[in-house]
Amino acid sequence: CNMDPELRWKEIERDQSDNEPVVAEEDGFSLAKMAEALRSAANGSGVRNPDAVFSKPNRVSRRQKSGDFDLAYASIRGRSHIRSGSFREDDVEARFFLDGKAVAIVVSDGAGSAPLSRRGSCVVTAVGIKCLIELGQKLVVEPEALNGRSQFAVDGFAAAVQSIRSQIEFEADCIKEQRPAFLAKEMYATFLAALVLPTASGYVLLTYSAGDGAIGLGLAGDASGIKCAPDHGQSAGQTLFILNKGADDAEKRLIFTKLPESYALLLMSDGVSDPRIQHGEELKPDIWNQLTDELKPLVRQEPLNHDAERVETYKERGALCEWLDSYEKGHHDDRTIAVLFHKLS
User: Fold this and answer.
1) Helices (H) and strands (E) in the chain, counts
2) Less CB within 10 Å around the terminal CB: N or C of the chain?
């Protein structure tokens, strides 16, 4: 007979969720030398220096508020990684800028087949958020840049992708000094990005995706629905990553949306979107509206922590991390979600 899979995964979650990833002694020595190569060649990109094994916390969250905006995110290590004793590969960053009147959000999912994808996703979010803020500051002072999907914005997002690629390639070159066989694709990661910017006639949204996961609007009237086009690689089950050909095709990937007075913006890795949104249903506004209604009370339970993200444990976790922990049969990947509410009572 076959055991109920839910019983098996619950046991793993309860007892091993907070365990640190296991690194073999010989692997730890190699990783430490690679990390030292990066630290000694820091180039001011804004990416935090790695520790000896490129580790990251198993679960994190953060909530910030500014004016009518309420911004929160959470990211947890998936059950498959708990079971194998490996690291969380997802990463997320979200910030206010322009005196709290604009928002930048980046979510990245490291490739499970890439040994150092946890570093790749870290580079994507750190460099990505820096580039989005710089781009947003330029766009708001260009009279025609935000009247629609402008070439200025298209070129800006393409340049952001190139900046992320350059940093990954720079770090790969540094690592090669210690491990000559290292390839940049060992840091494969996806890129989901959103910019919310003020204009004279209201707010606008610019979204960009390279890889799987999802971006959508909920409780936004006629604007509700998916705001990206998740894509996959040449072979089944393989997604596109930011280093792949076509990831910088901003003409195809950038979506412009004029925002209503109130709305919820959701960005999520495929660990959230795959079990929660069935294929073909992502186009239905009701799916995004229902998800927003589900998340509203959870975000409001999160404590404010403007200065830095909060590291959590399974026993002492916030409402968003607990929601991400919900069991979904057949889905055990890392889970990350970022939520922005504007004037939602």
Assistant:
1) 9, 12
2) N
In terms of C-beta density within 10 A (0-12 exposed, 13-18 middle, 19 or more buried), how is residue 123 classed? buried
Which pair of tokens denotes residue 97? 């800028």
Q: Record the tokens describing residue 247, joined without a space.
A: 């990831």
pLDDT band (50, 70, 90) for residue 89 = very high
Instruction: Measure the CA–CA gap between 238 and 313, rounded to whole angstroms.
Output: 31
pTM: 0.94
Backbone angles phi and psi of 172, in degrees to 5: -60, -40
Angstrom distance (rounded) from CA 78 to CA 86: 10
> Tell me, what DSSP letter sits at residue 307?
S
The 3-state DSSP class for residue 206 equals strand
82 pLDDT band, cuts 50/70/90, is: confident
CB–CB of 214/269 below 8 Å?
no
Question: Where is 286: in which H helix or E strand?
Answer: helix 285-301
Please tell me the predicted confidence (pLDDT) of residue 276. 86
Dihedral sign (CA 301, 307, 309, 315): negative
Per-residue HEC secondary structure of 46-113 comes to CCCCCCCCCCCCCEEEEEEEECCEEEEEEEECCHHHHHHCCCCCEEEEEEEECCCCEEEEEEEEECCC
Tokens of 252: 């195809």
Token code pair at residue 140: 């708001």
Q: How confident is the model at residue 236 (pLDDT cuts 50, 70, 90)?
A: very low
CA distance 344 to 342: 6
